[in-house]
Amino acid sequence: MVNINIMKKYIISGIILLCFIGSRGQDLQFGVFVEPQLSWLTPDAKNIDRDGFRIGINGGMIMDKYFAKNYAFTTGVSISNIGGNLFYEDSLTIKTAEAEQVMSPRSTVDYRLQYVSVPLGLKFKTNQIGYFTFFAQLGFTPQINIRARADASRSQLDRENISDEINLFNLSYFFGGGIEYSLGGSTELIGGIIFNNGFIDVLKSKNSRETLSFLSLRFGIMF
């Protein structure tokens, strides 16, 4: 499948990038994390409304490359499961892997999307206070879609493949903050909250523009 090949390409590219940056200096921390996520789609058309949220999960690896004591470039690679529900006042035709599905007016479509994410940003930390350090971070999150499925009310659409309806590339800006708890040496437990706000159209529909936003709770460990 093309999507699987794309996923492998970006994961390998991300790992090579992390290794290259890591070879340039010793002020480096790697980590792993998991994030419960709440996501939603925001349409700009009057006949389409947001109709609920999706609960998903994101997980992967982090890399912080410090260029000063309390400042770092932050990046990583992860796979996230996000999406949202949209309510359509008018009838809608959705192209699936098998055929085109026509949905009656006043239908809700539940979009289930999976992305490979490679965030690029800056991280700012306080000095350590006891065992704790506080941080803030901001930047951009490029994403590549690797799976897209949908359910719909009042139709036969049941977790159908709708990759042809979804743009391959998505981009959002993010900001957030959190806390790190030292376990000794460079090992730290991390917790935080991060908000991503998309500004690129997720769907290929030419009649409207839908952007994807998501709120994440991060739990992880840095080494």
Q: How would you portray this structure in words?
A:
This protein is mainly beta. The chain has one domain: Porin (Beta Barrel). Helices cover 9% and strands 63% of the residues. It is built from 1 helix and 13 strands, in the order H-E-E-E-E-E-E-E-E-E-E-E-E-E. Strands 1, 2, 3, 4, 7, 8, 9, 10, 11, 12 and 13 form an 11-stranded antiparallel β-sheet that branches. Strands 5-6 form a two-stranded antiparallel ribbon. It is elongated and about 60 Å long. The two termini are 35 Å apart. The model has no long low-confidence stretch (mean pLDDT 89).
Summarize this, please?
With 223 residues, the chain is mainly beta. It has 1 helix and 13 strands; from the N terminus they run H-E-E-E-E-E-E-E-E-E-E-E-E-E.
Helix-strand layout with pairing:
Layout: H1 2-22, E1 28-43, E2 48-50, E3 54-68, E4 71-88, E5 92-95, E6 100-103, E7 107-117, E8 120-125, E9 132-152, E10 160-161, E11 169-184, E12 187-198, E13 210-222
Antiparallel strand pairs: 1-3, 1-13, 2-4, 3-4, 4-7, 4-8, 5-6, 7-9, 8-9, 9-10, 9-11, 11-12, 12-13
